[in-house]
Amino acid sequence: MSHTTGVRQAQKQQSRRALMDAALHLLEHQSFSSLGMREVTREAGMSPAGFYRHFRDLADLGVALVEEALASLHEMVRAAFKEQGEPDELIDHAVRVIADHVREHRAHVRFVARERFGGVAPVREAIAAELERFTEEVTQALAAQPVSAGWDRADVRMVAELYVDHMVLTAAALQQADAETERQITATARRQLRLISLGRRHWVSG
Amino acid sequence: MSHTTGVRQAQKQQSRRALMDAALHLLEHQSFSSLGMREVTREAGMSPAGFYRHFRDLADLGVALVEEALASLHEMVRAAFKEQGEPDELIDHAVRVIADHVREHRAHVRFVARERFGGVAPVREAIAAELERFTEEVTQALAAQPVSAGWDRADVRMVAELYVDHMVLTAAALQQADAETERQITATARRQLRLISLGRRHWVSG
DNA sequence: GATTTCAGCAAACAGTTGTTTACTCAATGG
DNA sequence: CCATTGAGTAAACAACTGTTTGCTGAAATC
Asked: How far does the CA of residue A13 sit from the closest CA of chain B (Å)?
């Protein structure tokens, strides 16, 4: 067990984490385009030049953050759609899952919400690409539901976009809310989802 | 007519406009928190010190931009709700009004979309306050419609938030779209609004 | 017409920025 | 054990930042 190889890689990855965590921490009070790389390395306890061993750019680090932040979403939706029960119960469950996710990954959520339309093109585009994949996944899940039987694919996709946008916006609102505001937001979100789901059941596609 | 008083104020306001226009122009490629005030004065053709004759802060200028950008919305919604006709026609009209507005005020729309969750607190809060007033206005307009007869005020408000969020998001998407993408976005938006309006008609409040 | 006001300027201020250079020294692999 | 690799450092770089100071000259006031 004394034969340790890969120690070096582990140390490097630890530094990389430190940089990303430092950035994530600083991003709670500012937006990405105002972030300085000296600022990040300072926060991470590293010398400025060391940064270049890990990222070419700050934008490069930003893209890494996007992938990290949105990776967990895919399994989230998969789990949410596997659930079974009354529509209202499914909605309650989905909203609860989102609220939990935000509470556990506040910094990541804030970052995505802020930079979705932010000023740094590579980051913005990475988020768009990831949300696109996400929307496609939701589209497929919705298409498999009995309610969508006989629907145009475009109509299913349209509903998926509505759901995804609503979810992202709810997460963005939750991320900056205290306990009482969180209650209000989730209550409203549940009713909005119920209204949308009502519209779905009465939609005639084609 | 040679007796010119107020010339001074007019010149000052012209410089103020130049500063705001310069900022607005720079904000097409970056976000507000990365904006420098030397950058703004340079773009406006003014010396750095001159800035302080008009604004205390860059944030101060940002808030002024928010008010300018969202001022026109109020008359927009008033006009849209005064219209009469079939629900689908109303939706088509509303979407067209939004698309026109975005085309005519692209920079303002981009600014609001970007800074709604941006990194500069005073700007973010000014947008939130203005959108809140806007949502309240929509709530009242919706409450006056026959469809909302007997509804909880909270339910009406919930629908208003859904509409406003959807409108802002649509505008944000349109602002960075070419002609073909614009067609797709407006087509989707129309269907989404129809689905929501369908949900409204089948909602049982209370 | 003399006096006051005040928008805008030039210059200087101490800090900070991103990037490059030559370096150290521990982990690696033969 | 010895040579190589490469993560992280310290120092220096020109360029830029926001803000203050004293000034100029045209518009405003009396």
From this structure: 29
